[in-house]
Structures are given as structure tokens and as C-alpha cells.
TrEMBL record:
Keyword Glycosyltransferase recorded: no
Record SUPFAM superfamilies: P-loop containing nucleoside triphosphate hydrolases
Species lineage: Eukaryota, Sar, Stramenopiles, Bigyra, Opalozoa
Protein's UniProt keywords contain GTP-binding: yes
Stretches of the chain forming a coiled coil according to its record: none
Gene3D superfamilies in the cross-refs: P-loop containing nucleotide triphosphate hydrolases
InterPro entries: P-loop_NTPase, Rab, Small_GTP-bd, Small_GTPase
Protein name: Uncharacterized protein
Highest taxon, organism lineage: Eukaryota
Gene Ontology MF: a single term: GTPase activity
Amino acid sequence: MCFLGDQGVGKSSIIRVFVKGSFSADYKATIGVDFLSKTMYLEDRTVRLQIWDTAGQERFRALAPSYIRDSQVAVVVYDVSSRASFLNVPQWIADARAVQGSDAVLALVGNKSDLGADRQVSLEEAEAKARDLGVMVFLETSAREGHNIKALFHRLASALPHSDGAAPPTDANIIDVRLTPKPPKAAGELSGCSC
């Protein structure tokens, strides 16, 4: 799977919290691309995830198609406290579809949900955008708090086709309409939709 999105939205943090189980507040921009992997145990199979963390800077954007091409899932991340990163989501989705075609398994992730006071993108607006763009998974996460990180990767792993060559499942049978949220710290802390 390939993680895409603007610089500073938290792609590396989401991946590292999932793979290594820890968050670091020290921000270091990804140069080019980084690669991590982790094995997940699902109900019916074991999945080895190969995760490509692409750089969000414009100068590295030309590299993204080669990683998207070799991925089964493209995950576009934006920062809920940055409207500019949200406004760039359609272009990232278009880039993924241009390489993978209309059958691409796409996810939209609003990161930094812990920054409720600084929120510039409402949950409702993001859910509507996810529906309009036809992504299979939409979720808000907080890498800092570890919120929804495991749920995100579980959903992504479940969307992968089985090794027997079966077609990937449709969005109708892999995504809950809405998860039951824990008591929210900020409005719209948790969401899942069949987008």
C-alpha cells in the first residue's frame, strides 16, 4: 500500500505508530520514499503489508506514480487542521486513479483529529468529499494518540484481495457505515463510512 498526501499531514507518523507502536513529535520530512512492513493476522488469513511512505513535497511528486503502480491500496492523508491539505485531496486521488484505474482501492484519512480546537475541515465535509470521490474507506485518525490507527490498517488489509487471485471485495462488504465512537474529545473524532 502506498501513502500519499501533502507534506506534514502525518503519513509517516501514522505508519510508524502502526509498525513500531510509538509516536515521535520530532518532525523529519520524508525524502523520496520510505518502506516499512508488518504482518497482520486477520480472521481468515495472514497478510504481510508492504507500506510505501511517499514524500509530500512537490519536488518528489513525480516519484509517486511508480509506487502507486506497484500498490494494491492507495491511502490519501490530509491534516484536519489544514484546509490546504484537504483541498489537494482530489488531485492525489486523481493521481492514484490515473495509475491504478477505476478499480483502485482508495482510502481517505483525516489525521490529527486530536487538534480539535484547530480543526479547519469538519467531519461532515470530509465524509461528503469521500463519498463524492468514491473512496472505499474514510476514517479520521490521531497518530499522536494512536486513535483509529489499528482500525485503519485492519480495514485496508481486509480490502486486499486473497492470494488465491480472487477479486478484491466491494465497498459494500468491507466497510461499516459508522463505527461506534468512544466518548469524543472533539466533535467528529471517529468516523467510518461506506464511501
